[in-house]
Amino acid sequence: MLKVFHNTFVKLYEQYQGDETAKRLLDWLVKAWEKYEFIYLKYKDYYIKRKQFINQLLELYPDLIVQGEAFNGSRTTEVRAKDYPFFVDYAPILHYKKLPNEIIIEIDRLDKTHLKLVVDRLKELDIHALVCFSGHKSFHIHFLTYPESINSIEGYRNYANAEGVKEFTDALYRVILRKTKLDSIDTGVQLYGAHWIRAVYSFNRSKDTGKIFGVKKPINGLKTYPIWYIPKNIYLEVELEKKLIEKEKAEQAKRFAKIIQSAKTSKRFEWIEKVLKNPDKVVDGRERLLWLAIAPYLYNIKGLPEEEVHRICEEWIKATGVKYNACYRGRVNYVIRLAKGGVENKQGLEIKLVPISWQNLIMKWPDDFKWLKELLSREGD
Fold first, then answer.
1. Domain range spanning residue 100?
2. How far apart are CA 289 and CA 111, in angstroms?
3. Residue ranges of the alpha helices (H) in 150-200?
4. Whether residues 110 and 201 fall in one domain
5. Exposed, middle or buried by CB within 10 Å (0-12, 13-18, 19+), for 154?
6. Nearest-angstrom CA–CA distance, 89 and 212
7. Angle 238-348-131 (CA atoms, 0-180°, nearest 5)?
8. Does the pLDDT value for residue 334 go beyond 70?
9. pLDDT score of 324
10. Which of 128, 149, 229, 332 is the least crowded, having the fewest Cβ atoms under 10 Å away?
11. pLDDT digits (tens, 9 = 90+) for 3-26
12. Is 275 a member of any domain?
Protein backbone atom coordinates (compact mmCIF):
# COMPACT_ATOMS: atom_id res chain seq x y z
CA MET A 1 0.00 0.00 0.00
CA LEU A 2 1.17 3.55 -0.68
CA LYS A 3 2.94 5.25 2.23
CA VAL A 4 1.30 8.67 1.90
CA PHE A 5 -2.26 7.35 1.50
CA HIS A 6 -2.01 4.08 3.44
CA ASN A 7 -4.13 4.86 6.50
CA THR A 8 -6.66 6.92 4.54
CA PHE A 9 -7.19 4.28 1.85
CA VAL A 10 -7.45 1.45 4.39
CA LYS A 11 -10.26 3.32 6.15
CA LEU A 12 -11.97 4.02 2.82
CA TYR A 13 -11.85 0.35 1.83
CA GLU A 14 -13.56 -0.45 5.15
CA GLN A 15 -16.08 2.40 4.83
CA TYR A 16 -17.18 1.39 1.32
CA GLN A 17 -17.00 -2.37 1.89
CA GLY A 18 -19.47 -4.09 -0.44
CA ASP A 19 -19.54 -1.18 -2.92
CA GLU A 20 -17.88 -2.61 -6.04
CA THR A 21 -17.63 0.77 -7.76
CA ALA A 22 -15.84 2.27 -4.75
CA LYS A 23 -13.47 -0.70 -4.64
CA ARG A 24 -12.61 -0.27 -8.33
CA LEU A 25 -11.99 3.45 -7.80
CA LEU A 26 -9.78 2.80 -4.78
CA ASP A 27 -7.86 0.05 -6.60
CA TRP A 28 -7.33 2.48 -9.47
CA LEU A 29 -6.14 5.24 -7.10
CA VAL A 30 -3.61 2.92 -5.48
CA LYS A 31 -2.18 2.00 -8.87
CA ALA A 32 -2.40 5.57 -10.21
CA TRP A 33 -0.30 7.00 -7.36
CA GLU A 34 2.47 4.42 -7.60
CA LYS A 35 5.75 6.28 -8.20
CA TYR A 36 3.89 9.63 -8.07
CA GLU A 37 3.23 10.18 -4.36
CA PHE A 38 5.87 12.91 -4.35
CA ILE A 39 3.58 14.98 -6.60
CA TYR A 40 0.77 14.89 -4.05
CA LEU A 41 3.15 15.83 -1.25
CA LYS A 42 4.53 18.74 -3.25
CA TYR A 43 1.18 20.02 -4.53
CA LYS A 44 -1.21 19.07 -1.73
CA ASP A 45 -2.52 22.66 -1.55
CA TYR A 46 -3.62 22.41 -5.18
CA TYR A 47 -5.72 19.33 -4.42
CA ILE A 48 -7.37 21.16 -1.51
CA LYS A 49 -8.16 24.15 -3.74
CA ARG A 50 -9.46 21.86 -6.49
CA LYS A 51 -11.93 20.35 -4.06
CA GLN A 52 -13.19 23.84 -3.13
CA PHE A 53 -14.04 24.58 -6.77
CA ILE A 54 -15.74 21.20 -7.22
CA ASN A 55 -17.73 21.70 -4.01
CA GLN A 56 -19.09 24.96 -5.39
CA LEU A 57 -20.26 23.18 -8.54
CA LEU A 58 -21.81 20.44 -6.41
CA GLU A 59 -23.75 22.99 -4.43
CA LEU A 60 -25.24 24.37 -7.64
CA TYR A 61 -25.43 21.07 -9.52
CA PRO A 62 -25.65 18.07 -7.11
CA ASP A 63 -25.50 15.46 -9.88
CA LEU A 64 -22.08 16.58 -11.13
CA ILE A 65 -20.32 13.73 -12.94
CA VAL A 66 -16.55 13.30 -12.61
CA GLN A 67 -13.89 11.10 -14.12
CA GLY A 68 -10.31 10.50 -12.96
CA GLU A 69 -7.18 10.37 -15.09
CA ALA A 70 -3.86 8.90 -13.99
CA PHE A 71 -0.50 10.36 -14.93
CA ASN A 72 -0.07 7.47 -17.39
CA GLY A 73 -3.29 8.41 -19.20
CA SER A 74 -5.63 5.69 -17.90
CA ARG A 75 -9.12 6.89 -16.96
CA THR A 76 -11.90 5.67 -14.72
CA THR A 77 -15.55 5.20 -15.47
CA GLU A 78 -17.71 8.24 -14.78
CA VAL A 79 -19.29 8.56 -11.32
CA ARG A 80 -21.33 11.10 -9.39
CA ALA A 81 -18.99 13.23 -7.32
CA LYS A 82 -21.33 13.29 -4.33
CA ASP A 83 -21.41 9.48 -4.16
CA TYR A 84 -17.62 9.18 -3.90
CA PRO A 85 -16.23 12.40 -2.37
CA PHE A 86 -12.86 10.73 -1.71
CA PHE A 87 -12.37 10.51 -5.45
CA VAL A 88 -12.55 14.29 -5.79
CA ASP A 89 -9.87 14.49 -3.09
CA TYR A 90 -7.40 12.01 -4.53
CA ALA A 91 -7.81 11.54 -8.30
CA PRO A 92 -4.40 12.55 -9.76
CA ILE A 93 -6.14 14.49 -12.54
CA LEU A 94 -9.87 15.22 -12.35
CA HIS A 95 -12.34 15.95 -15.15
CA TYR A 96 -16.00 16.88 -14.80
CA LYS A 97 -18.90 16.96 -17.21
CA LYS A 98 -19.57 20.52 -18.23
CA LEU A 99 -22.64 22.00 -16.59
CA PRO A 100 -25.58 22.70 -18.92
CA ASN A 101 -25.48 26.40 -17.99
CA GLU A 102 -21.68 26.79 -18.02
CA ILE A 103 -19.89 28.81 -20.68
CA ILE A 104 -16.24 28.15 -21.47
CA ILE A 105 -14.18 30.33 -23.78
CA GLU A 106 -10.85 28.82 -24.75
CA ILE A 107 -8.01 30.87 -26.22
CA ASP A 108 -5.54 28.51 -27.86
CA ARG A 109 -2.51 30.77 -27.75
CA LEU A 110 -0.38 32.33 -25.05
CA ASP A 111 -1.05 35.94 -25.98
CA LYS A 112 -1.76 38.04 -22.90
CA THR A 113 -2.64 41.06 -25.02
CA HIS A 114 -5.38 39.10 -26.75
CA LEU A 115 -6.48 37.65 -23.42
CA LYS A 116 -6.87 41.14 -21.96
CA LEU A 117 -8.92 42.16 -24.99
CA VAL A 118 -11.27 39.19 -24.47
CA VAL A 119 -11.62 39.86 -20.74
CA ASP A 120 -12.27 43.58 -21.28
CA ARG A 121 -14.93 42.93 -23.92
CA LEU A 122 -16.68 40.45 -21.65
CA LYS A 123 -16.71 43.08 -18.91
CA GLU A 124 -18.61 45.37 -21.29
CA LEU A 125 -21.48 42.87 -20.88
CA ASP A 126 -20.86 42.84 -17.11
CA ILE A 127 -19.29 39.37 -17.34
CA HIS A 128 -16.51 38.99 -14.79
CA ALA A 129 -15.21 35.52 -15.53
CA LEU A 130 -12.78 33.06 -13.97
CA VAL A 131 -9.61 33.18 -16.08
CA CYS A 132 -7.28 30.17 -15.91
CA PHE A 133 -3.93 29.35 -17.45
CA SER A 134 -4.21 25.79 -18.75
CA GLY A 135 -0.75 24.86 -17.56
CA HIS A 136 0.51 24.50 -21.11
CA LYS A 137 -0.39 26.75 -24.03
CA SER A 138 -3.89 28.15 -23.65
CA PHE A 139 -6.25 30.17 -21.44
CA HIS A 140 -9.65 28.95 -20.22
CA ILE A 141 -12.40 31.40 -19.28
CA HIS A 142 -15.31 30.04 -17.19
CA PHE A 143 -18.58 31.45 -15.91
CA LEU A 144 -22.04 30.12 -15.02
CA THR A 145 -25.19 31.66 -16.47
CA TYR A 146 -28.56 32.17 -14.79
CA PRO A 147 -31.66 34.32 -15.43
CA GLU A 148 -31.84 37.57 -13.47
CA SER A 149 -34.88 36.30 -11.57
CA ILE A 150 -32.96 33.48 -9.83
CA ASN A 151 -31.37 34.27 -6.49
CA SER A 152 -31.42 31.06 -4.43
CA ILE A 153 -29.54 27.75 -4.34
CA GLU A 154 -32.78 25.87 -5.05
CA GLY A 155 -33.42 28.13 -8.04
CA TYR A 156 -29.88 27.53 -9.35
CA ARG A 157 -30.31 23.77 -9.11
CA ASN A 158 -33.72 23.73 -10.77
CA TYR A 159 -32.52 25.91 -13.65
CA ALA A 160 -29.34 23.91 -14.29
CA ASN A 161 -31.39 20.69 -14.49
CA ALA A 162 -34.20 22.14 -16.61
CA GLU A 163 -34.85 20.77 -20.08
CA GLY A 164 -33.34 22.79 -22.92
CA VAL A 165 -30.83 24.74 -20.79
CA LYS A 166 -27.81 23.37 -22.64
CA GLU A 167 -29.24 24.37 -26.01
CA PHE A 168 -30.09 27.82 -24.64
CA THR A 169 -26.57 28.20 -23.22
CA ASP A 170 -24.91 27.22 -26.50
CA ALA A 171 -27.01 29.80 -28.32
CA LEU A 172 -26.18 32.36 -25.62
CA TYR A 173 -22.49 31.59 -26.14
CA ARG A 174 -22.74 32.42 -29.84
CA VAL A 175 -24.59 35.64 -29.04
CA ILE A 176 -21.88 36.66 -26.58
CA LEU A 177 -19.12 36.03 -29.12
CA ARG A 178 -20.98 38.09 -31.69
CA LYS A 179 -21.76 41.00 -29.36
CA THR A 180 -18.18 41.17 -28.11
CA LYS A 181 -16.72 40.64 -31.62
CA LEU A 182 -14.34 38.02 -30.27
CA ASP A 183 -12.11 36.07 -32.63
CA SER A 184 -9.28 33.52 -32.31
CA ILE A 185 -11.54 31.51 -30.00
CA ASP A 186 -11.69 27.70 -29.94
CA THR A 187 -15.46 27.19 -30.12
CA GLY A 188 -15.14 23.40 -30.10
CA VAL A 189 -14.91 23.25 -26.31
CA GLN A 190 -18.37 24.79 -25.91
CA LEU A 191 -20.22 23.54 -28.96
CA TYR A 192 -18.77 20.35 -30.37
CA GLY A 193 -17.98 17.76 -27.78
CA ALA A 194 -15.25 18.45 -25.18
CA HIS A 195 -17.74 16.82 -22.86
CA TRP A 196 -15.11 16.49 -20.15
CA ILE A 197 -13.58 19.61 -18.63
CA ARG A 198 -10.35 19.45 -16.66
CA ALA A 199 -11.06 20.77 -13.20
CA VAL A 200 -9.33 23.87 -11.88
CA TYR A 201 -6.09 22.91 -10.09
CA SER A 202 -5.70 19.69 -12.05
CA PHE A 203 -2.52 18.86 -13.93
CA ASN A 204 -2.25 19.10 -17.70
CA ARG A 205 -1.10 15.94 -19.45
CA SER A 206 -0.16 15.81 -23.14
CA LYS A 207 -2.24 13.25 -25.06
CA ASP A 208 0.54 12.93 -27.64
CA THR A 209 3.66 12.54 -25.47
CA GLY A 210 2.23 11.73 -22.04
CA LYS A 211 4.31 14.52 -20.53
CA ILE A 212 2.86 16.16 -17.41
CA PHE A 213 2.73 19.94 -17.66
CA GLY A 214 1.77 22.61 -15.15
CA VAL A 215 -1.48 22.94 -13.28
CA LYS A 216 -4.63 24.61 -14.58
CA LYS A 217 -5.12 27.48 -12.15
CA PRO A 218 -6.76 30.92 -11.88
CA ILE A 219 -4.66 33.90 -12.86
CA ASN A 220 -7.14 36.64 -11.92
CA GLY A 221 -7.49 35.90 -8.21
CA LEU A 222 -10.99 34.36 -8.22
CA LYS A 223 -11.61 31.43 -5.89
CA THR A 224 -15.02 30.35 -7.24
CA TYR A 225 -16.85 30.12 -10.54
CA PRO A 226 -18.54 33.51 -11.06
CA ILE A 227 -22.23 33.73 -11.95
CA TRP A 228 -23.45 35.98 -14.75
CA TYR A 229 -27.11 36.93 -14.58
CA ILE A 230 -28.42 37.05 -18.14
CA PRO A 231 -29.94 40.47 -18.95
CA LYS A 232 -33.53 40.34 -20.21
CA ASN A 233 -32.68 42.26 -23.37
CA ILE A 234 -30.46 39.37 -24.54
CA TYR A 235 -33.17 36.70 -24.35
CA LEU A 236 -34.76 37.62 -27.71
CA GLU A 237 -31.40 37.40 -29.46
CA VAL A 238 -30.79 34.00 -27.92
CA GLU A 239 -34.17 32.65 -29.07
CA LEU A 240 -33.44 33.80 -32.61
CA GLU A 241 -30.01 32.19 -32.40
CA LYS A 242 -31.57 28.89 -31.30
CA LYS A 243 -33.74 28.86 -34.42
CA LEU A 244 -30.68 29.58 -36.56
CA ILE A 245 -28.82 26.68 -34.91
CA GLU A 246 -31.75 24.32 -35.55
CA LYS A 247 -31.72 25.31 -39.22
CA GLU A 248 -27.97 24.78 -39.44
CA LYS A 249 -28.26 21.34 -37.84
CA ALA A 250 -30.96 20.31 -40.33
CA GLU A 251 -28.72 21.35 -43.21
CA GLN A 252 -25.75 19.57 -41.62
CA ALA A 253 -27.80 16.39 -41.23
CA LYS A 254 -28.59 16.44 -44.96
CA ARG A 255 -24.91 16.90 -45.82
CA PHE A 256 -24.02 14.11 -43.41
CA ALA A 257 -26.49 11.73 -45.08
CA LYS A 258 -25.02 12.47 -48.52
CA ILE A 259 -21.45 11.99 -47.30
CA ILE A 260 -22.27 8.67 -45.63
CA GLN A 261 -24.19 7.37 -48.64
CA SER A 262 -21.27 8.19 -50.91
CA ALA A 263 -18.83 6.55 -48.50
CA LYS A 264 -20.85 3.32 -48.29
CA THR A 265 -20.38 2.70 -52.00
CA SER A 266 -16.64 3.35 -51.83
CA LYS A 267 -13.87 0.76 -51.41
CA ARG A 268 -11.45 3.21 -49.85
CA PHE A 269 -12.09 1.89 -46.33
CA GLU A 270 -11.18 -1.74 -46.99
CA TRP A 271 -7.84 -1.10 -45.24
CA ILE A 272 -9.71 -0.84 -41.92
CA GLU A 273 -10.85 -4.46 -42.25
CA LYS A 274 -7.20 -5.47 -42.64
CA VAL A 275 -6.30 -3.60 -39.47
CA LEU A 276 -9.17 -5.28 -37.59
CA LYS A 277 -7.95 -8.69 -38.76
CA ASN A 278 -4.33 -8.04 -37.74
CA PRO A 279 -4.42 -6.67 -34.16
CA ASP A 280 -1.06 -8.32 -33.43
CA LYS A 281 0.58 -5.95 -35.94
CA VAL A 282 -0.59 -2.82 -34.07
CA VAL A 283 2.34 -1.09 -32.37
CA ASP A 284 1.03 2.42 -31.68
CA GLY A 285 -1.78 4.85 -32.46
CA ARG A 286 -4.61 2.71 -31.09
CA GLU A 287 -6.66 5.63 -29.78
CA ARG A 288 -6.46 7.60 -33.04
CA LEU A 289 -7.32 4.52 -35.07
CA LEU A 290 -10.30 3.83 -32.86
CA TRP A 291 -12.04 7.19 -33.08
CA LEU A 292 -10.79 8.46 -36.44
CA ALA A 293 -11.19 5.24 -38.40
CA ILE A 294 -12.58 2.10 -36.78
CA ALA A 295 -15.57 3.46 -34.80
CA PRO A 296 -16.93 5.69 -37.62
CA TYR A 297 -16.38 2.83 -40.08
CA LEU A 298 -18.32 0.32 -37.99
CA TYR A 299 -21.13 2.66 -36.96
CA ASN A 300 -21.58 4.97 -39.94
CA ILE A 301 -20.35 2.97 -42.93
CA LYS A 302 -21.27 -0.59 -41.96
CA GLY A 303 -24.29 0.55 -39.94
CA LEU A 304 -23.71 -1.80 -37.01
CA PRO A 305 -25.70 -1.37 -33.78
CA GLU A 306 -24.07 0.62 -30.99
CA GLU A 307 -23.57 -2.45 -28.78
CA GLU A 308 -21.90 -4.36 -31.62
CA VAL A 309 -19.56 -1.45 -32.33
CA HIS A 310 -18.44 -1.42 -28.70
CA ARG A 311 -18.00 -5.20 -28.67
CA ILE A 312 -15.81 -5.22 -31.79
CA CYS A 313 -13.77 -2.24 -30.60
CA GLU A 314 -13.22 -3.80 -27.18
CA GLU A 315 -12.17 -7.16 -28.62
CA TRP A 316 -9.80 -5.45 -31.08
CA ILE A 317 -8.17 -3.26 -28.43
CA LYS A 318 -7.65 -6.25 -26.13
CA ALA A 319 -6.21 -8.28 -29.02
CA THR A 320 -3.61 -5.54 -29.58
CA GLY A 321 -2.35 -6.19 -26.06
CA VAL A 322 -3.86 -3.38 -23.97
CA LYS A 323 -6.91 -2.90 -21.75
CA TYR A 324 -10.13 -1.45 -23.16
CA ASN A 325 -10.42 1.34 -20.61
CA ALA A 326 -12.77 4.29 -20.15
CA CYS A 327 -10.67 6.46 -22.46
CA TYR A 328 -11.19 4.12 -25.43
CA ARG A 329 -14.85 3.64 -24.56
CA GLY A 330 -15.30 7.41 -24.40
CA ARG A 331 -13.78 7.87 -27.83
CA VAL A 332 -16.23 5.39 -29.35
CA ASN A 333 -19.14 7.02 -27.54
CA TYR A 334 -18.06 10.41 -28.88
CA VAL A 335 -18.20 9.18 -32.49
CA ILE A 336 -21.63 7.63 -31.94
CA ARG A 337 -22.93 10.77 -30.23
CA LEU A 338 -21.77 12.92 -33.14
CA ALA A 339 -23.48 10.62 -35.63
CA LYS A 340 -26.73 10.52 -33.69
CA GLY A 341 -26.84 14.30 -33.35
CA GLY A 342 -25.78 15.01 -36.90
CA VAL A 343 -23.42 17.59 -35.41
CA GLU A 344 -20.64 19.09 -37.46
CA ASN A 345 -17.62 19.77 -35.31
CA LYS A 346 -15.12 22.56 -35.94
CA GLN A 347 -12.97 20.33 -38.17
CA GLY A 348 -15.85 19.25 -40.38
CA LEU A 349 -17.94 16.14 -40.84
CA GLU A 350 -15.34 14.50 -43.05
CA ILE A 351 -12.87 14.35 -40.15
CA LYS A 352 -14.93 12.78 -37.38
CA LEU A 353 -17.90 11.01 -38.98
CA VAL A 354 -16.28 9.46 -42.05
CA PRO A 355 -13.14 7.35 -41.45
CA ILE A 356 -9.83 9.05 -42.05
CA SER A 357 -7.74 7.59 -44.87
CA TRP A 358 -4.67 5.53 -44.04
CA GLN A 359 -2.60 7.93 -46.13
CA ASN A 360 -3.62 10.85 -43.90
CA LEU A 361 -2.86 8.88 -40.75
CA ILE A 362 0.67 8.14 -41.95
CA MET A 363 1.19 11.70 -43.19
CA LYS A 364 0.04 13.34 -39.92
CA TRP A 365 1.59 10.86 -37.47
CA PRO A 366 4.42 9.10 -39.35
CA ASP A 367 6.17 7.82 -36.23
CA ASP A 368 3.01 6.25 -34.80
CA PHE A 369 1.95 4.50 -38.00
CA LYS A 370 5.13 3.06 -39.50
CA TRP A 371 3.68 -0.36 -38.77
CA LEU A 372 0.49 0.50 -40.69
CA LYS A 373 2.45 1.42 -43.80
CA GLU A 374 4.32 -1.88 -43.58
CA LEU A 375 1.12 -3.88 -43.05
CA LEU A 376 -0.69 -2.37 -46.01
CA SER A 377 2.39 -2.59 -48.22
CA ARG A 378 2.60 -6.31 -47.54
CA GLU A 379 -1.07 -6.60 -48.38
CA GLY A 380 -0.45 -4.99 -51.76
CA ASP A 381 -1.81 -1.50 -51.00
1. 6-230
2. 33
3. 153-160, 165-180, 188-191
4. yes
5. exposed
6. 19
7. 55
8. yes
9. 86
10. 149
11. 899 999 999 999 999 999 999 999
12. yes
- Statement to judge: residues 157 and 46 lie in one domain: yes
* 324 contact partners, CB below 8 Å, separation of at least 6: 313, 314, 317, 318
Find out whether 196 and 97 touch, Cβ atoms under 8 Å. Answer: yes
Residues 103 and 160 in one domain: yes
In tens, the pLDDT along 57-69 reads: 999 999 999 999 9
CB atoms within 10 A of CB 94: 27
Banded pLDDT at 378 (limits 50, 70, 90): low
Within a 13 Å sphere around the CA of 53, how many CA atoms are in the beta-carbon half? 29
In this predicted model, what pLDDT tens digit does every residue of 115-163 receive, in sequence order? 999 999 999 999 999 999 988 888 999 999 999 999 899 999 999 999 9
Q: Give backbone dihedrals phi and psi of 32, rounded to 5 degrees, phi first.
A: -65, -30
Percent of the chain with pLDDT over 70: 92
Q: Are residues 185 and 277 in the same domain?
A: no
Radius of gyration of the chain (CA): 22
Whether residue 56 is predicted with pLDDT greater than 70 in this model: the reply is: yes
| Inter-residue contact 172 to 145 (CB < 8 Å) | yes
CA distance 184 to 176: 14
Residue 130 near residue 220, CB atoms below 8 Å? yes
Q: Find the CATH number of the domain harbouring 141.
A: 3.90.920
